[in-house]
Specification:
Layout lengths: L1 H7 L2 E6 L2 E6 L4 H13 L4 E6 L5 E3 L5 H12 L2
Antiparallel strand pairs: 1-2, 1-3, 3-4
Helix pairs in contact: 2-3
Organism: Luteolibacter yonseiensis
Protein name: DUF3634 family protein
Length: about 80
């Protein structure tokens, strides 16, 4: 499932050294800042977040389960 989500994702956010960067698609800067802050607080060095066209969000295995909902909330907020 994660493999397919990654292939068909319209948005790809990559976390490196605790900093989030949009590699594919468009993400507002404040969302990347919020994800970077969550990653830094969790001492997360690397990971990927995929979002497909219908809003389904997927996470690489590097991102701890306890961050998933918090990141989803950031992605869904206005």
């Amino acid at each position: 499932m994660k493999f397919l989500l990654r292939i068909f994702a319209g948005t790809l956010i990559r976390i490196r050294n605790g900093s989030a960067d949009c590699v594919k698609g468009k993400v507002m800067g404040w969302r990347l800042d919020a994800i970077s802050e969550l990653a830094a607080d969790a001492n997360l060095d690397a990971g990927e977040i995929w979002v497909n066209g219908n809003g389904t969000v997927g996470f690489s295995n590097d991102i701890p389960q306890e961050l998933h909902q918090r990141i989803r909330n950031v992605m869904a907020s206005d």
